[in-house]
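Sample 1 of the test manifest.
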Amino acid sequence: MLDLGHRRWAIAEGWIPSQSSFANRALESHETACILNAGDQPAELRITVFFEDREPAGPYRFTIAPRRTLHLRFNDLAKPERIPRDTAYSSVFESDVPVVVQHTRLDSRRPEISLLSTIAYAEG
Amino acid sequence: MLDLGHRRWAIAEGWIPSQSSFANRALESHETACILNAGDQPAELRITVFFEDREPAGPYRFTIAPRRTLHLRFNDLAKPERIPRDTAYSSVFESDVPVVVQHTRLDSRRPEISLLSTIAYAEG
Amino acid sequence: MLDLGHRRWAIAEGWIPSQSSFANRALESHETACILNAGDQPAELRITVFFEDREPAGPYRFTIAPRRTLHLRFNDLAKPERIPRDTAYSSVFESDVPVVVQHTRLDSRRPEISLLSTIAYAEG
Amino acid sequence: MLDLGHRRWAIAEGWIPSQSSFANRALESHETACILNAGDQPAELRITVFFEDREPAGPYRFTIAPRRTLHLRFNDLAKPERIPRDTAYSSVFESDVPVVVQHTRLDSRRPEISLLSTIAYAEG
């Protein structure tokens, strides 16, 4: 498989609702960055999270093995710090090899679920 | 952090429902432009809003500090004029430094919420 | 306002549900192409609609005045022919001046509404 | 109709819910790749599906006739193997002629439906 994608990506939207109508992980309110490493080298990823009223958090570091996808929940980020709930944020992804990034939210503040998704912004 | 993004963005969709099933700000029907300024310079932003049957409104002016995001609700635009509800519009963003723009709507006309989102159109 | 956008756009998804839970136009199931002509010349638009099992329909022709948006419902297309409901389609937009195109569906087959949106594919 | 699109596309998000609130095909939970071949040559398509913890599946092969769209459900992929439900995946599309790809999910785990959509990532 050839290298596919870009080394820098950004997601301008970010909002993890503090409320969920369901206790199981699948339907808990969450935001996800879906990251595809279609190439034959591991991808070393560095994520920075931006806020409206303070300096950025991070870097959060992850490795994605060759020919693997990672569906990374922003809810699960913990080191160096947790992403606050009910708070506007954005995120930037820097990888040493090309990857592809897509953003989703599952929102279950209300008893029905609602979904959003978009390709992230690619550069470089 | 390096400069990331583009200086001109457009969102062709625009529609703020006049109705909401909830009174709290989080679940009120709204459209948002999420704007990331990942660079080390302030971003001076100029927004123009286009309609189907009249000349454009604006410019609306905002400054985004370095390394900050702004989740700007179209509902809140007031100067030089308010965006009418239940009215088709589009928007163009011009910045003096590169930024990244994503568009979302939370629609609560019905008692459950519905979400949409997309990366905006980038140029320049 | 400078010219902004591209002259050719495509939306690969297309599906107009035949059912709606509401009779009013705003909440009737529909798909829309939101088209922004931010420039100072009229945009002459030519839309072709593709199907899974027959030759394309169209062209559908529209003019968008300078500095105007058009939120065009596929439900309303009538000449040269109506778009069938519950049928997979795609669409291609050709304009003589640059425009920006975004795609949305409001789906009210169920009593709650659901939304999707994406920037269209741009070229040329 | 001129050739339109790209030869390589990727969708980083993938998740087919195992549950549906409805038995009819239209409202069953599903993910779709909408693929437009606007050109005058058949498109020979090769799809590879990536996972978090195993080697990729595929290739899945399809032909799209000239001037046709294909709304391909990931649920229906069967050869060389079925896509597992409730499992994170990504997909890569390689075509011998330019095509346009858009991704959608209809999620009916809950009695109301929820939709997401995005243009896929294009390259080459």
